[in-house]
Specification:
The chain has 103 residues and is mainly alpha-helical. Helix content is 68%, strand content 0%. It has one domain: lambda repressor-like DNA-binding domains (434 Repressor (Amino-terminal Domain), Orthogonal Bundle). The chain has 7 helices and no strands. The longest helix is centred in the N-terminal third of the chain and has 16 residues.
């Protein structure tokens, strides 16, 4: 069950990013069939490669497994940006988020 989830999630994120299996394999530094082999169930990535795949999608492993997040890469970019803000600016952003959620 988990293996199928991993294969499907990689495919979902890859399609959302708009890259082919070949291109993703190439971008990760592997042979052209690497992602195809994962997607088709012939293999699973080892932990080091799984982490590289998460980096490729600009998400954390936690975000990889959380399918309730619609745009994990954008959430991660927002979080990265918020790390550099002052507390007052973060509070202001939280106020904006709460206001948007009401609409």
């Amino acid at each position: 069950m988990l293996e199928e989830f991993i294969r499907n999630r990689i495919t979902q994120l890859r399609l959302k990013k708009g890259v082919s299996e070949y291109q993703m394999s190439y971008d990760l530094g592997h042979s052209r069939g690497y992602i195809y082999n994962i997607s088709s169930g012939k293999s699973l990535p080892p932990l080091k490669e799984f982490l590289a795949i998460c980096d490729y999608f600009e998400i954390t492993p936690q975000q990889f497994f959380d399918t309730t997040i619609q745009h994990p890469e954008l959430i991660q970019k927002a979080l990265d940006g918020m790390k550099e803000l002052e507390e007052s600016d973060i509070l202001m952003l939280l106020g904006i988020i709460n206001r948007l959620r009401k609409h």
